[in-house]
Every structure is written in structure tokens, then in C-alpha cells.
Amino acid sequence: MKIANYHIGKENPPFIIAEMSGNHNQSLERALQIVESAAKMGAHALKLQTYTADTMTLAINKGDFFINDEQSLWKGHSLHDLYKLAYTPWEWHVPIIKKANDLGMICFSTPFDESAVDFLESLNVPAYKIASFENIHLPLIAKVAATGKPMIISTGMATLGEIDDAVQMARKSGCNDLILLKCTSTYPATPQNSNVITIPHLRTLFNCEVGLSDHTMGIGAAIAAVAHGASVIEKHFTLSRADGGVDSAFSIEPEELHALVIETERAWQSLGQVTYGPSETEKKSMVFRRSIYISQDMKEGDRLTRENLRCVRPGMGLSPKYFEILLGRRVNQDIKKGTPMQWSLVG
């Protein structure tokens, strides 16, 4: 499948998405710097999130709408205040998309309600992402699918039945190009709860491209995902975690993004195919195997022994597997020390 000019699939290098989210810290200048850095580090796409606080939740600062979880990065915020802090102003989308395109990246977004889809369609984005928290929002999935554009769905928290509901809705509503991302919706996630071995199972069950939306620190889980067939990797990205921001704690920095691009491509290149025996590039190394050599000068009629026959490098003589078979046999000619052993030397 394709998103814009990028071919996505197991036959191609992993497609790397840098997720800006709210790491712009409400500065358009910083947002554009993030775009520049992502492009410089080799990301193929930049992803935004399109919502407002009012399209996400109710302006209530207590009860269900207030975050008290001691483990949450966002403890002490109401949901409405958090989304006001994290959202990307809609008027920023045009300059951000233009900057990304000018630098050779594609740019698309995660809409969180139907009005966001209408807005993004007016900007002619090349693809859509459905966030894990919205993968049960079937009306939204149907509206996105109806655009006919490639669609990426994160599967965080979703049961197999819920993923099936989302996939069926997407396909029957007009989506022909679908990617499912394995995702663990904890922030940060840990390698232990990433379960990337699910990735080939998703591919088999739903017959679509698969990948990882990765909230772990570092790039190890992403490399493991590619080794298990992921064709897309999404990571939150920031200029510096030390600068703070709603998602900065589980975002990668520029040099980490650069390493992600390089190492996931290396992981993909290493997959190859099931093969045994020397490859073409290995054949020239076979000379450095051990083989059987005459290790002492010998006269015609002498017997081969452990003293005059050895398994040494290089590999020009008979294979070491014949060593015991040769012991005790007589040579049929005078032989100099250092002669590679061949069957023609024995009677």
C-alpha cells in the first residue's frame, strides 16, 4: 500500500512517524522546529492531533473530569485544562503541514471527532490515524473511512472483538488501505508490557499492514517490532525531554529518532529469507575453515597418524569429518608437510 509517495509493506523499509502531539508547548515556533528536526533525523512523516478541549470533554474541574491518579503524568489537571494545554491550534495546521512538505515529509493527523475530519479534509491530508482511545468510536472510524484515504488504527486497550468491530467498520465504510498498530496505552509503556509478538498475529488475523505505536523509552521495542514484521513505527517526538510538555516524558529526542530510523531499517534488512549453506558473500570466507593437512613430511607407504595428520586452517583440504576415517591408511606417494589432504593421496 501507499501513503502519498511512500510504499508501505514488508518489502520496504519501515515507515517512521514522528508524533508531535502537544510537545510544541503552545509555541508555533517550537512546533516548526520539531518539524525541521524530525525531517533532518530522517522521519518519513510527522503526525499531529486535531481536536479542541471542547470537542474532547466537558469543562468540569472535579469528579470524573479531574485526574487524581498518583501514577499519571497529568495528575492535578482537569481533562479540559489538559486538552487546552496539549491541543494544536487548528490555525497552525497549514504552516506545519507546509513546512513538513517543503522538507520532504508527509504530514497527517489524528482527528478526535467528526468536525476534525471535515477540517482535515479541507487541508487534503494524505492519511488519517485513529488513536487507541478512539478505536471504539465507530461513527468516527466510519467518517474517516469514507474519505477513501489510508487509515492507521492503534489497538491500545482494544479486545480482539473491538479490533474486529473497528476493522469491519473501516472496510465497509470505504477504507481499502488499512494499517493496525500494536499499542500499549500506558505512558510511558514498558518493554515488558509491549507484547510485540502480537504483531504477526494481527497481520494474519486481519490481512493488513501492521506496526507499533511505541510509548516505551528508547528504541529497542521498535526494533523488535520490525523483527516481527512491523512495517510502520510511530514514536512521540520532542526536541528535548528536559523542556517539559504534556508528552515529553515518553518522547524520543532528535538523536534517538535518527537512531530509530537507521536501526529499524537495519533490522528490516537483516530479515532476509530462510536460507542455509554459504551465501555468495560468505563463499570467499570458506578458505578460513579448518581442513585436513599433512603436518609432517611423509614417504610412500607411511601410515596416517594423529602426529602427521591435523585439522588446521585454511580450508583447502578434506573436511575434518573424514579425519578418523583416514587414520591408519597408507599414503601412495611422498608428501611434503603442509600438503592439503585429498583422497588421491591414499591407496
Note the gap between the termini.
65 Å
CATH overall fold name of the largest domain: TIM Barrel
Chain-averaged pLDDT: 96
Backbone structural class: alpha/beta
Overview of the molecule:
With 347 residues, the protein is an alpha/beta fold. The chain has 2 domains: 13-51 and 87-271, Aldolase class I (TIM Barrel); 283-345, Type Iii Antifreeze Protein Isoform Hplc 12, CATH 3.90.1210. Helices cover 30% and strands 15% of the residues. An 8-stranded parallel β-sheet has the order 5-4-3-10-9-8-7-6. Strands 1-2 form a two-stranded antiparallel sheet. It has a two-stranded antiparallel sheet with strand order 11-12. It is elongated. The model has no long low-confidence stretch (mean pLDDT 96).
Task: Give keywords.
single chain, 347 residues, alpha/beta, TIM Barrel, Type Iii Antifreeze Protein Isoform Hplc 12, 2 domains, eight-stranded parallel beta sheet, two-stranded antiparallel ribbon, 11 helices, elongated
